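@channel anyone free to eyeball this complex?
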Amino acid sequence: MNFLKKYINKYWKLFCAGVSCLTIEALCDLMQPTIMSKIIDIGVKKRAIIYVERFGILMLLITAVGAIAAVSRNIIASTVSQKFGAELREDLFVKIQSFSFDNINNFEGATLVTRLTNDVTQVQNFANGLMRIFVKAPIVCIGSIIMAVHLNYHMAGVLGITIPMAGILIVLNMKIGFPLFMKVQRSLDKVNSVMREYLTGVRVVKAFNRFNYESERFEKANNELVSVSTTAMKVMSVFSPGISLFVNLGITAVLWIGGNWVSHGKMQVGQIIAFTNYMTQILFSLMMISNVFTMFVRAKASTERIGEVFALENTMKFNEVSNDTSEVFGRVDFENVSFSYEGKNGQAVIKNVSFTCLPGETIGIIGSTGSGKTSLVSLIPRFYDGTSGTIKVDGIDVKDISLKNLREKIAVVPQKNVLFTGTIAENIKWGKENASFEEVIQAAKISEAHDFISTFPEKYDTMLGQGGVNLSGGQKQRVSIARALIKNPEILILDDCTSAVDMVTEAKIRKSLKDYSKRLTSIIIGQRITSVMTADKIIVLDNGEIAGLGKHDELMKECSIYQDIFYSQIGKEGI
Ligand code: TTP
Ligand code: MG
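replying in thread with the prediction:
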């Protein structure tokens, strides 16, 4: 819960102001029944009109003060809770952004979403409630008891029985409620995660006609949520009527005993009315307290879940960087690098890889699927850290370069292209926010995207749906390449990103890339041998190991895996 400290430090003054208003409001409420009893027992009974008038005006004044306090605390409570909620969400967002891929793999995507939305809302509501009603409830409850006892201490015995009974119910409520609401939250996560997975894979689901299967999966998660929530609500709903029962029994007792006492002169009618009034106030505040606990329990569960995100340490270690600028541009060195997704003890997907990529060179990487091509290049921008060995960019160990600087040098076009909702121009500019329109066009020309974009009626202002659904696979790939190019990187990594582009266009892209910058180091992963064979150096990857390294001609002589790929794709007779 440490993360809450920051907000407490920031908002405690306003919070106290809100609670002060609330206290004034509660005190005003508390005075009303006693004044009323005085009006009845003295003013009305003895027909003293001046007394009635005087106390009537006093009552009005107190109501007015109470109303002003109520308006103020409402404004304060809304302001504080909204600001607090917004800041908490923002901080969480920033924290999640700082996570390494490893960290994110720790959480299922959907739970991070529910933590950011639903959990924050719960905590925010609780903070709001705290300033609106919650503090008032105990004040009114205790105040009513004091006022009631003060009014007629003979009657206090009735309170002595009812209130402890209600208290026991409240404690039980809390004990039983907490684990139930934790469960509710977890079920909500599940529903979200099924829904998210369905929505991302909706095309496949339809193609495979697996709608029923997905529906069942959703129904199962949904039913579980319903059942857990219903159980939680059922358990919770027993408590309010229970409290109500005890207090109403108390009120009946007051009326019954009080009625007898009036005839003996031990109590007055106004006092009975005031006493029952206080009892009703006690009832309301107890109900409120029980609601508070329900909300508290939910907020506590949510706070813990949010706390888990804040508490997660970034798995990536950062060295103190004194000077990470270099005279070299676009050089990459791998020195005996091994890597596994499961840490040191996991199965290695990259095994003892060493190679050097000189500035301006084009390196091709080829190998069967699962041979570790994507994993290998994801180590360069430090999406993951290798388990052993050293990776250097521009001659400096990547661990000694600040992440911002490192990633500024490198542009990656991932294998699975990701586009965002927005226009094509916005998507390309995503690589460089302040890029001019000319730069956008230039990048699109190099990636052979300009021509097809020009055929759209709205050209660069064509809106893309989520994930770029209204573009073809090859078109998306070309927009992704333009987005990487506009960044003007030193090192460009293309991960199989021309797989959906025809061979002629691919050759054009390669040529324009070559012409575009002599200083740009390109690392091109390809499944097609034609994508890599013109590279300055080709790495043949086999099961995480380098099976061959050299130019096309050399590999054709020395590397049997490379030969196999070549002959299977091109045939014996060559191109
Ligand atoms: P990749 O590096 O993804 O293999 P690849 O890029 O050569 O394959 P493709 O041509 O199909 O793109 O995977 C190497 C191994 O690492 C493989 O066994 C799967 C595993 N892996 C993970 O465990 N987690 C991951 O996030 C990725 C990307 C791969
Ligand atoms: Mg891959």
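from a first look: The pocket of magnesium ion (ligand 2) is lined by residues 373-374, 415, 495-496 (CB under 6 Å).
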